[in-house]
Each structure stands twice: as structure tokens, then as C-alpha cells.
Amino acid sequence: MAEEHALERHSLAKTREWREVTVRTLREQIIPADRPAVLRGLAGSWPIVRAAAESPEALSRYILARDSGRPIRVMMGRPEIHGLYFFRDDMRGLNFEQAYRPAHEILASIVGYADLSSPPSLYTGAVGLEDTLPQMARECRLEILDKPARPRMWLGNAVTAATHYDNSDGINCMVAGRKRFTFFPPEQLPNLYVGPLELGPGGQPTSLVRVAAPDFQRFPRFAQALAAAETAEIGPGDAVFIPNLWWHNVEALEPLNLSVNFWWFDALDDWAAEPFAALAHSLLALSPLPESRREIWRMMFEHYVFRAGGDPVPYLAPDRRGMLGEMTPALQDHMRSQLIRSLTKRMPKALGEPIRRLLWAARRSGEGR
């Protein structure tokens, strides 16, 4: 039987707090520190925050008046999961089901569950407001953001998003309810006991440790992760900045919780591929190799990709560096074609050839622009 212990939160470091944050403060102090930050009162002037402060009914009226009626994904869990969206015990799936309903109907169900001692869990996340509640998207603006970032809504009752990371920097603004964040630096990955990379409650790699009651017998190194962790709690109008690749466990603490977040990634150019896809491709291409060959490829990655020794080709003229130089559209197309050929090489002929033909047609079309 698992030996779980309630987490002693008072022993965790507290995330630094900021007030009256400006674009300059965000850009010159908060983001460069590469640590989470609580931004008190950042969204306090939003109309939806004022509606939520009035009553759940006022919040419901606000949402209903702006809802396009477009169904959105909602994750539904039985009362016995106690709000923790997680892996099934047999690790063959996840402990919730999915459906599609309009936002105002989901909110109505959450409000209706508020007085139940053991309610079902309802949770919907990363809902694009521009498509679903466009007026709300216009009203939920952050003046401190100087980069495009689409507002996304998170709505649920007292649910927990288990420890995961995001690929982009983000600011999560609390509208109704309260949330508690537990943050772990990226280097704590080995101590977080991450589950299967392709199976996560929110679509991202997720820790197997239940943060609120860790089983140190099964996950002994998690104690080291906790020693490096910090925690923050935010309420209506507050926000939290979460740097990309920082692991975070998110507990919604009230019967009704709604937040809006904004994601952006400063370092990623428009043409860049997704880093996680590179990891997945490397697992396909490099993991099967003998240890001696993997070691050589590790050296190649450090030299060319991570550039541990600096510029890998200082002896080549800038216009002769190919893939290691300026990323032109032609080079981008060439690299994508190499990837697609690699991924389709062992596909059935009837599937792989059409994909390659479409790629070639797209490249020829691009050459004619």
C-alpha cells in the first residue's frame, strides 16, 4: 500500500511578489530572472473580475451574454478522483472522460455542483477566447504584453492539474476563485518521476507524484525536488508569470475557479519547429542505436545544436554555412523535407508516397513565389 504524507507547504519557499508591473518591469526584471513571479492586482480592472466578485450568478450572466455557443472540450471526472486529473492506476489511460459543451452550460453545471460535498469534477482548459467568447477576449487585455498572445480560458471546480511544464512563457490571471501553484525548476526533471511522454492529462509530460500527498517510499527523489520548489497562491485580479519549462502543479481551491492565461515564446522564430517534436524524433532515430553510436551523436548534438564550444563553423563564410547559417526559406524547406523523408521512410508505400508528393508540390509552389 502506498505510504503517502500530506505535504508540509509552510516549508516551501514563497514565490516573489510584484505590484504595479509595467512592460519595462516585465521585460527587464521579471522575464530575465527566469523564475515564477506573482503579479498582484494585474487583472483587477477587467469587467469579468468585477462580475465574478459580485456573485456566481453575475459571472454566469456575463459569460452567457458573450458566449458564441460553440462547444468546447470539457474533462469530466467521477467524485472519487477528488478533482485530481491524473493517470489511471494501471497506466493504460487517464481517469476522466471528455465531452463538448458550450461554455455557459459548463459554468452552469459547476455552479450547480457548488453545494455538493463530493461533486463530480469538471474542467476545461486552454479555450481560445477569440473563437468562443470574442467580446470577453477584447475585454481581457494585458497592457504589459508587448508580443502577440491569445487569451485562453481555464474553468473548473476544485480540480488539480498535476505537475507539468509549458513550452511557452505564460501569465495566468485569476478571475474567480483561488489557485495554488507549486513550482519546480527545469533541472528537477530527474526527481519528478515523469510518466509516459505521450500520455498526460493535459497533453504535456506529467509527473506521477501526487504533490498534495507524496509517496516518498515509491518516489524518494521527490524530496530533492521539494527542497528546490516554491509555492504561490493567487486570487481574483492577481496573476502569476510562469517561465517556459518550469514544472508546475496547479490546485484550484474553490468550488468555482476561472482564469485567463496568455502564452508567448520570445526565443522561437516563426519558422522554428517545436522542440518537443525534436525530442520525439530523436527517440525514434537515436535511442535504438548502440551506446557507442549514441555517444557520438551526443557529441554531434553538443557541437552543432547546443554549441557547447561556441560557433561550430567559424571557418566558413556566412553565406556558405548552409543549415548552420542564416535560415532562409529554401533551407527551411530542405530541412523539413529531410525530416519528412525520415519519418515516412518505413511507412507503407501507399501512405508515404502521397505525403512526399504533397511536400514536393509545396516546395515547388514556394519556389514560384
Radius of gyration: 23 Å
CATH third-level topology of the largest domain? Jelly Rolls
Number of strands: 15
* Biggest sheet, spatial arrangement of strands: 2-3-13-10-15-8-7-4-6
The biggest beta sheet reads: 9 strands, mixed
Q: What is the domain total for the residues?
A: 2
CATH class of the largest domain: Mainly Beta
Helix share of residues?
25-40%
SS content category: alpha+beta
- Number of discrete helical segments: 11
Q: Extract low-pLDDT stretches.
A: none
For the terminal residues, how far apart are their CA atoms? 65 Å
What would you call the quaternary organization?
Answer: single chain
> Beta-strand percentage?
15-25%
Q: Which homologous superfamily in CATH is the superfamily of the largest domain? A: Cupin
**Approximate shape:** globular
* Mean of residue pLDDT values: 93
The H-and-E topology, N to C, reads as EEHEHHEEEHEHHEEEEHEEEEHHHH
CATH architecture assignment of the largest domain: Sandwich
Quick overview of this protein structure:
By secondary structure, the protein is α+β, with helices and mostly antiparallel strands. It has helices at residues 23-33, 47-54, 56-66, 103-113, 129-132, 134-139, 222-227, 275-285, 291-304, 329-344, 349-367; strands spanning 13-14, 17-19, 37-40, 72-77, 84-85, 97-101, 121-128, 151-156, 160-164, 169-176, 179-184, 230-234, 239-242, 247-252, 257-264. 32% of the residues lie in helices and 21% in strands.
